[in-house]
Amino acid sequence: METPGSQSSLHRANLERVVRAVRLAGSLTQAEIARTTGLSAATVSNIVRELKDGGTVEVTPTSAGGRRARSVSLSGDAGIVIGVDFGHTHLRVAVGNLAHQVLAEESEPLDVDASAAQGFDRAEQLVTRLIEATGVDRTKVAGVGLGVPGPIDLESGTLGSSAILPGWIGTRPAEELRGRLGVPVHVDNDANLGALGEMVWGSGRGVRDLAYIKVASGVGAGLVIEGKIYRGPGGTAGEIGHITLDESGPVCRCGNRGCLETFAAARYVLPLLQSSHGTDLTMEGVVRLARDGDPGCRRVIADVGRHIGSGVANLCNLLNPSRVVLGGDLAEAGELVLGPIRESVGRYAIPSAARQLSVLPGALGGRAEVLGALALALSEMGDSTLLDGTLSAATPVFT
Amino acid sequence: METPGSQSSLHRANLERVVRAVRLAGSLTQAEIARTTGLSAATVSNIVRELKDGGTVEVTPTSAGGRRARSVSLSGDAGIVIGVDFGHTHLRVAVGNLAHQVLAEESEPLDVDASAAQGFDRAEQLVTRLIEATGVDRTKVAGVGLGVPGPIDLESGTLGSSAILPGWIGTRPAEELRGRLGVPVHVDNDANLGALGEMVWGSGRGVRDLAYIKVASGVGAGLVIEGKIYRGPGGTAGEIGHITLDESGPVCRCGNRGCLETFAAARYVLPLLQSSHGTDLTMEGVVRLARDGDPGCRRVIADVGRHIGSGVANLCNLLNPSRVVLGGDLAEAGELVLGPIRESVGRYAIPSAARQLSVLPGALGGRAEVLGALALALSEMGDSTLLDGTLSAATPVFT
DNA sequence: CCGTCTATGTCCAACTAGTGAACTCTAAGC
DNA sequence: GCTTAGAGTTCACTAGTTGGACATAGACGG
């Protein structure tokens, strides 16, 4: 690591500046890079040559009809990143390149009762299969992003209490997967990754402050503050599910009463419908029935929306984000749930905080988390690992 | 403004690095600067000379007993900044220098019904008086930080609905004061400034994520996220006072029911004691009585604490700060109010979010806001205006 | 079909700024 | 009084950005 404040650090920063600009736009000519980065054309010329030699960037000799600009884009095979998302009933893996393109993606059901070891085995297999399917070289894998449905202690990397995957408590998922795949693995919880995914590819594009609310087995929020995921000093920011809505409400698994979860999470909501709609109902089922017009399901979903809206109103008063993106199974209900949320927010949030707020469904559905994991892997590479050209040499991966 | 990525921007960054290091430590020798900033001794030598010539820094030829290190400190008279705080019953002004030293400070009562014009007149007079009292040259005033007890629209700079100073709604305080004093004025609401003050000088030192809760006529919070005041895209973050605690609670001035304010703010709490303790009770009075053992006041304060604790618990679940600092009149009650807050937080916040949380009283009392205003003025100068040595020449102030 | 125009990308000399090494200086320690 | 060691300065060197000159090649008008 060079000393900060030196010229070489400036150069490095300028390299990153260029890479970021290219990534953001997909592809740019050198002149455009110069304009967007503010660097001079000469510097850009040098930097592009350096990047090209390093293999991080590709220059397609002549672009479309234009004058004769050579368009610069991130080279697809300079390195690939992998996103892994453990959900509460599924495992999902995506493979992407540095150009933010998803090369392959697949999901498979995962037994809720699976042990952690089984889960990691399955993940390893699926990753291997997808890499082979895309035909890229395994040595090109630069990093893995991993999503788990529970709180991660950032210091130790251990998974805290997660009633969703009970067998996993106390494991260190990143270590575990790192051991199997031999590449750096970065872990975060599913709500944060969902937020990241929607921010990069989905309903959160262009917004710097947003909250991604994931309603599934539990209720969690991923907070994006000034363009960055905010985890809080202890790593547990975003626990919107355990905001107290009613001090004398139902007892929650966290030990308190009347948490938002007890009004909105699948595990508390589904039982309400079991006497009338049978016992093996899932949240997806409820949503489907509601869309088909089932009044009971509609009512339940509206009530859930109202409660979520109360929680979101609190969140808006405190953080005043410009957008709230709803994810998880429930988001499929569309206006059936968004309407009541907006209504509730309008009622309980102070007007100035709610005024410019937009409440949108996630654009990525169940893919938000894997894609977020991809984005995590990309961003944790620091945008600089990929610059020094030593990528394939420095990280002896697989064999 | 130079282009980013140029060498001169690097140089500027290094200048700031040095100034920051010196400010943080109060005074350093060049060798120490080199060690803490990571710059080489030669570079530090150049930079110090440049800063000394520019007048931002002072070099005291020989320090105490040491070998023969020349200690470098921010020069006190390179420029001064002013903090102005309009409270709901007072006006407070502080004068400080670039070394973060407070040179003079004074407060005087301000009639609640005063018109905005009257208020600004008074502020101008007090500022003038204090500048004269300190004996510094008026041309040295580099900027003013201004605190107002209500939401400020960051775009337009207008003061939103404030039931605290009714005559002020729609005014543009920064413009107003700028017109009178002829210097750049930066405005923010009192809770944010209190947070800034406590962060720089008070109970928040060394913490990067904290919430400053100000309980006075209303209840507001100033959020510090990763070392920076967070205002939210709309500028209204931190409105903890209007979190809903009880959907069927008392009607709040904001139009909702059961807001935290209706359980904690002076305007709602004092009436509870008027039948037993007389009608001209103030919050300070209640606190004093409680400290003296009055059971009614103790009970009221404890109840307020419990409710604040509920709000803080929500805040912790969402943001997971490492510290909560209590400000405003109520903070004087010490453990009488902090105990119930902690208890309530422990009960309603999820354990992992509350574990490393410390709840402390503000260390600055009623001065937090003015000092925060000073800090705002300093920081809005960008810590770089003060570097280019053109300070006194560039801003023709007063006469 | 050809000359001119214009925007792109490259090259080079100039300049800015940080760094290591050598050097000077001064108080402390013996 | 001599030595020593850390502090600060000077200087030559190097890294890296920049403006301007230059080559290039499509677009446009005739």
UniProtKB/TrEMBL annotation, chains A, B:
Q: Which residues form a coiled coil?
A: none
One GO MF term attached to the UniProt entry: DNA-binding transcription factor activity
The text of the family note is: Belongs to the ROK (NagC/XylR) family.
Official protein name in the record: Transcriptional regulator
Q: Which CDD domains match?
A: ASKHA_ATPase_ROK_BsXylR-like
Q: Which residues form the HTH marR-type domain?
A: 18-68
Source species of the chain: Streptomyces phaeofaciens
Lineage, top-rank taxon, reads Bacteria
- Database matches in InterPro entries: ATPase_NBD (IPR043129), HTH_MarR-typ (IPR000835), ROK (IPR000600), ROK_cs (IPR049874), WH-like_DNA-bd_sf (IPR036388), WH_DNA-bd_sf (IPR036390)
